Amino acid sequence: MLNFECDYMKGACPAVLQRLIETNMDETLGYGADPYCRSAIERIRAACGCPEARVYFLTGGTQVNATAMYAVLRHCQGVISPVTGHINHHESGAVEATGHKVIALPGHDGGKLKAEDVERYLKDYWADENYAHIVEPGMVYITHPTELGALYTMDELKALSSICRSYRIPLYLDGARLAYALASDKTDITLEDIASLCDIFYIGGTKCGALFGEALVIPRPELTGELFSIIKQRGAMLAKGRLLGLQFDTLFTDGLYARNGLNAIETADLLAKGIKDKGYSFLIPPQTNQLFVIMENDRIEELRREVSFSMWEHVDADRSAIRLVTDWATSKTDIEALLALL
Amino acid sequence: MLNFECDYMKGACPAVLQRLIETNMDETLGYGADPYCRSAIERIRAACGCPEARVYFLTGGTQVNATAMYAVLRHCQGVISPVTGHINHHESGAVEATGHKVIALPGHDGGKLKAEDVERYLKDYWADENYAHIVEPGMVYITHPTELGALYTMDELKALSSICRSYRIPLYLDGARLAYALASDKTDITLEDIASLCDIFYIGGTKCGALFGEALVIPRPELTGELFSIIKQRGAMLAKGRLLGLQFDTLFTDGLYARNGLNAIETADLLAKGIKDKGYSFLIPPQTNQLFVIMENDRIEELRREVSFSMWEHVDADRSAIRLVTDWATSKTDIEALLALL
Amino acid sequence: MLNFECDYMKGACPAVLQRLIETNMDETLGYGADPYCRSAIERIRAACGCPEARVYFLTGGTQVNATAMYAVLRHCQGVISPVTGHINHHESGAVEATGHKVIALPGHDGGKLKAEDVERYLKDYWADENYAHIVEPGMVYITHPTELGALYTMDELKALSSICRSYRIPLYLDGARLAYALASDKTDITLEDIASLCDIFYIGGTKCGALFGEALVIPRPELTGELFSIIKQRGAMLAKGRLLGLQFDTLFTDGLYARNGLNAIETADLLAKGIKDKGYSFLIPPQTNQLFVIMENDRIEELRREVSFSMWEHVDADRSAIRLVTDWATSKTDIEALLALL
Amino acid sequence: MLNFECDYMKGACPAVLQRLIETNMDETLGYGADPYCRSAIERIRAACGCPEARVYFLTGGTQVNATAMYAVLRHCQGVISPVTGHINHHESGAVEATGHKVIALPGHDGGKLKAEDVERYLKDYWADENYAHIVEPGMVYITHPTELGALYTMDELKALSSICRSYRIPLYLDGARLAYALASDKTDITLEDIASLCDIFYIGGTKCGALFGEALVIPRPELTGELFSIIKQRGAMLAKGRLLGLQFDTLFTDGLYARNGLNAIETADLLAKGIKDKGYSFLIPPQTNQLFVIMENDRIEELRREVSFSMWEHVDADRSAIRLVTDWATSKTDIEALLALL
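^ Those are the sequences you sent over. The predicted structure of the assembly is below.
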């Protein structure tokens, strides 16, 4: 069975696994007070160009999103998200469960927020004489890449950042698949750019070569107080915090995180080219490691016998879009095998 | 440096690590829909003698406690806990953050709840004509072993269970260190007894040989609905759920969990005997893998240079209690080395 | 200054005020345990044709909405509302603050939910293989009349009720202006119909002749447990509960609530006819006591000097819609005076 | 039947009722944007000697307490309260439902917090190396008079204020019965003193002559942001806000609030003297308008036939304490009638 179902099916990339093995019997203090966490924080600060950034390690994306919004939003504030944003659609209401509304605006070109939509919403909100009766937009949430694999351009990100700053609200970037955004040549946004333009974001590990874990980064520490207690209170503080620190320390040593991203992008590009050559079209133009390919329903049923993938949506009576995902471990052989079946 | 600081300083026990390595490149569905989780659930059900139990794997104790109470308590209900209960004291208010009061009753003999105290509280509550203005006691929470390493006797657990049942409220057992309770000869309570007498409990992995993770068990599934969405909403659902399932599958194969417990208990017993022989006394009689030894403050300062441990509390002007903890990996050599220093 | 700004500017209708004066020095038990509350509950049960209904008196609409949803929705459930629904737009996020998502569907014909939209949403939700990751629709919320004064027809309400029942979720009706819906001849829905077709609703007092207060009604008591403690916990339990009971007792004696509604409707009809005769058009066809009249902006500015009303929205570059509201106390003289100015 | 049950059994004092009648048909804007609220705010500011105080009007004590703590406490903070504090015991867990722990310390002399207890708790908290795992004490809550009618002395209040300030946490005073504290000669604390020494408090109306309502006062506005939206979100913002403003405007005109307090105190003093003369003793020395009288159980049963009052607690096998409460309307004739029965 070929596997293109998603990018969190395997364990850890080899170097991460190796470090976990090597350090298994080390004895360190818990809750992040260990040398691996400290080292990982320094490496991430360096990679972001933010020597004073707050960095915390948590175990999953929904956990990071809900914890960060709980920590940062004030009462009566909500968070602007594209309709298809992960927090709006696929987190079982985790943000609302912390008491905050997700204010959904339309997405464009694969689920991206448009700066002008955000600006209009903010302007209208503050112009409404009854604004105090309405949830105050207190944050802007984007995913990069989006749930559909789309990427913001530098201009788009700058425009969003600029609006957020003029309204003094933080811009939050959900980087569950950040390695794949950074490796793509469809955008020139770097990690330093993100740290400069966003106010809070997370660097995804689970889908990008870690066994599990995400790194929450607050580039300018004045945005929040110390978050230790809040993370603990949310049940999001791993007792053996070093497990997370160690992984990010490894991923941010010698460019491993970038290489993990690059492998997925190169194999996805190869796959996209092959698919195009065979005459299929895409739901949205491929940009990262997720390809949304439109196929006849019969063809899809056949393919299922030998390949694992997700159904995405119906396109018309006869055709649907399927999702094919590459990752840090996908090989060219896998791609060739899949293309041979198409 | 000898390490008796706590039981979550090392990684995983060898067999668990081995399985993580072997299965690293397996590709499984996420969120617990994998064969390792299914197998682990069956093994835990068998070990508990509850073939229909609901079993979920989460990443840490505070997370399990807060998630379970959020799921089970109704609005306006609180949970009865001993004053020293972990939820009352050491979880940054995680239970209250889900909206529920922790109703603290005095602890006895190392932080145990007394059935008669619980009964009196419940009786008085329902006899108060203004009870609807007061938080309703909706659950009883105990830890076994307690935060001070104390164990309930079978009679004590039966008495608590009986009162909870007569008032139709669930009895919750926090088993962060359950392996060490099960292995101790100071109580004859088995896992099957716990599953029979308690209504919800968790089997600790993090402190008992897993890399990380806890198994929440609801022996009689009618207590709650399906908890998947609630766990997801709390950010407590690991995408690579198999990492947790695999560990518990291993721990509950061929008695590994019991062996892990036994090692800690045997080394703790050896240590306790040696300490007693040297004339020290204990804050409370040793029962599991945590020993609370009373020493002169000067002596403690000296010991610190070669041994890592926790300060517990001041006993009098000159003496304090320190905590020494053994675990699944403590060796007799470690014990001898420590005793040589005392 | 003529006042058509809104229907909660004045105090109480004369009969309600008279009873408050007469009973001022009575001494009754607090928290609803008084004869006035008991009598009011019986009168409301009789008017609804539901002899076992649970009835509670609270002080305002946002309070009732948030308390009722907090009480009824289970964790991970949200409430379907039209985009313009009061809970979605004008309650400062009160529902989300209780942890529940408002799932906004498009409104039609003045902010009404369409049964087919609701059905499609529910069907799609349960057909989604990842539904457990998505907020579960656990209630349907409508306002009658809507925020734009529109009314459901009997067929529309029956269709919504039927869908809710086939999916076993409650239908909630926000009746902040219910007196005006009941008095209008644009729909033939009675209070008994509402009690029969909806599962939870409130009868608005504040805007319909009471000094303040709303009556929450749960026609079939098995929907919820006793709500006293939840109402108390939310700070929504008035110590002098009799103040609310007394008002509803009065409003539901000798048809006062209906007469209050009728006055607003008759004067609104008179006003609508006059406005139409003068050649103005309406944003939506007048149905209850709120008229949304389209006017030249210059004309609006002139009118402001002698009449108090709300601006509603811009229609085009030169024209806007204003809102004119009648109530239980509006006189024909007021209408004539206003028409003379148009 | 003589009524000494509690101080919220009657309606409004005559002057308040009169103003409600006179202004009933006034047409004002809602949500506090009316001249009565503005005037009441200015009068309260003047009475407090705080010309910039934030002042809000809410409908009940539990509502004020929970709203204020929700607004002021940061995540992971709790509020220190005496065990018998109203928020700890009699509000159905309203504070915990906002996510915050009530940290209960022992009460003294009728439920008063001792400054040294608070200081020790704060000192120990910050000295604990694991403090980040423990709920941070973020506010101190007291009632004045206490639930047992006891009063803080100026020295006691100064000591509490001083400790709170040295730890930079707000001191909150629950003044549900504040009129009775201010009128008592057992303490010399004035309203200005409270505004100077406390950081947030409320002036009770419901029990002190208003029909209903409480005034939340934040003497130095920098403690919080504008609270309108939070109050609205909590369902605690009355649409006809003027009803509350008008009442407090009246209570703070020509010393009415003080006179209401004085009547209760004078009648309570008369009653206390008579009771003492008849040889009864008190559970705690009478200080305000609540007397806790110890009587034979048989005697209590007899008295019940002609007087309404609360049972308080059992004193020994044969005797119990009952509570007798006077208010703004109690007459000397009432007292004489009661004394004749004792």
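Residues 58 and 64 of chain B are 6 Å apart (CA to CA). Chain B has 14 helices and 13 strands.

Shout if you want it in another format.
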